[in-house]
Amino acid sequence: MRLLLAEDERDLNRIITQKLISAGYSVDSFYDGEEAMAVLSYTDYDGVILDIMMPKADGFTVLRSLRDRGKTTPVLFLTARDSVSDRVRGLDSGANDYLVKPFSFEELLARIRAMTRTAFGQGSAVLTIGDLTLDSAAKVVKRGGNPLNLSAKEYALLEYLMYNQGIVLSREKIENHIWNLDYEGGTNVVDVYISYLRKKIDDGRAQKLIHTIRGRGYVLREEQP
Length: 225
Description:
By secondary structure, the protein is an alpha/beta fold. It is 39% helix and 20% strand. The protein has two domains: 2-119, Rossmann fold; 126-220, Arc Repressor Mutant, subunit A (Orthogonal Bundle), CATH 1.10.10.10. It has helices at residues 10-22, 33-40, 59-68, 84-92, 105-119, 152-163, 171-178, 189-201; strands at 2-6, 26-30, 47-51, 75-79, 97-100, 126-129, 132-135, 140-143, 146-147, 210-213, 217-220. The strands form three sheets. Strands 2-1-3-4-5 form a five-stranded parallel β-sheet, sandwiched between helices. Helix 2 packs parallel to helix 3 (59-68) and helix 6 (152-163) crosses helix 8 (189-201). The radius of gyration is 18 Å and the shape is elongated.
């Protein structure tokens, strides 16, 4: 999934960005609230991580701008301020979660998984369709009980399809949620990765799960063989 990170401490920003990418996320990172607000005005994300105390615009201002445009993107605040009043203000402002510095990266990942699951209406870390399962906590994918070896991008694409199972997703929508602003790949990148996934998930099986909807995009759903 695609995340936006706004954190003005450059070393911390770099570390968090690298760890999120290593965990399979696509990340756009910024150092001030004004730049984050500008990007959020024209780009959709699956989750937003905001430091509260930032130059040009603080986290509360960025969040208010996001909510004023009617966007329900889940938002997690990072802050060194741990008073009850600060936490209450953050949550009452429309944030989904609040993490106090210093924090463990494992906890940050768990909170990101929890808030994005909730945003997609999922109550469990294990996503299922037919005999295909994806454990978003363990990063394990199985079909028919057999583990599948997926690359980071293949996993990210499958996870996005599973969160949106039954919904036809355009190539543009998929690309915008799996690759970040720095991506400069080919125009058929989504088709290529769909092909990779099909070989690992559907080849040799009577029941196909990944389907092409001509002129519209792709959908993950069960159909009778």
